[in-house]
Amino acid sequence: MAFLKLNEVSFSYPRQDRPVLSGIDLALEQEGIAALVGPNGSGKTTLTKLMVGILSPSAGEVYLEERSLRNFSLAQIGRRIGYIFQNPDHQLFCSTVAEEIGFGLKHRGWPLDAITERVKFLLDYFELTPYRKAFPLHLSRGEKQRVAMAAVLAPEPAFLILDEPTVGLDLYRKKLLGDYLKKIARLGRGTLVVSHDHSFVQNTADRVVVLERGRIQGCEKTKGQETR
Ligand SMILES: Nc1ncnc2c1ncn2[C@@H]1O[C@H](COP(=O)(O)OP(=O)(O)OP(=O)(O)O)[C@@H](O)[C@H]1O
């Protein structure tokens, strides 16, 4: 069973003559790491927004675990799919880094000691411990990216969608992120990464979906899969 399935999905923004996406058929499993690549403006971000219900298709249907996404509230989708925006500023709103990472857990009713332990682990893993009391929006681009990532990963959603997660990350931190995604993939979590970072995609993803001018041009295997 595909975790997410798009059936003949097309999408046009209001007051635009041409559809941004046309006839998209795609199935994503709840394990492994898929990458979505393509030139600027090919519709990658739009496609991910359709997958999490921020946008609705103009035609066709998106299914989450075989139920139409139209039957889910945004909150219900948010509990199944963690979404990391291209710009981390769009998802940081707490007054400290530690609160930001623990926010989703608190919201889901995790006990306080479990929240403290999980936040501590993620602060440590993403090397954010020195910034735990800092105001997230005052951090550097790469630090904000790591906070957003830790906050979305904290509740361990069944599936993750990351839009350009390596922007602002140095080589060492890209590797840490890649290792983390591979680790959660081994635990049965699926991931879709939108990225222009060729080496990150090649080293991290099992499968690459190529989007061009709003259409899927093909799916490729990567060398990352051969070495796993
Ligand atoms: N809110 C919007 N209203 C109207 N047009 C939009 C809107 N958002 C995106 N577009 C247009 O839709 C097309 C696809 O944009 P999208 O951001 O999905 O592409 P992308 O492949 O993610 O690009 P990039 O690689 O530059 O991030 C572009 O031509 C863009 O200008």
From TrEMBL:
Family matches, as InterPro entries: AAA+_ATPase, ABC_transporter-like_ATP-bd, ABC_transpr_CbiO/EcfA_su, ECF_ABC_transporter_ATP-bd, P-loop_NTPase
PROSITE patterns per record: ABC_TRANSPORTER_2 (PS50893)
SUPFAM superfamilies on file: P-loop containing nucleoside triphosphate hydrolases
Segments forming domain ABC transporter: 4-226
Keywords noted in UniProt: ATP-binding, Cell membrane, Membrane, Nucleotide-binding, Translocase, Transport
GO CC terms: ATP-binding cassette (ABC) transporter complex
The organism's place on the tree of life at top rank: Bacteria
Pfam families with a match to the protein in the record: ABC_tran
SMART domains: AAA
GO molecular function terms attached to this record: ATP binding; ATP hydrolysis activity; ATPase-coupled transmembrane transporter activity
Family listed: Belongs to the ABC transporter superfamily.
Protein name per Swiss-Prot or TrEMBL: Cobalt ABC transporter ATP-binding protein
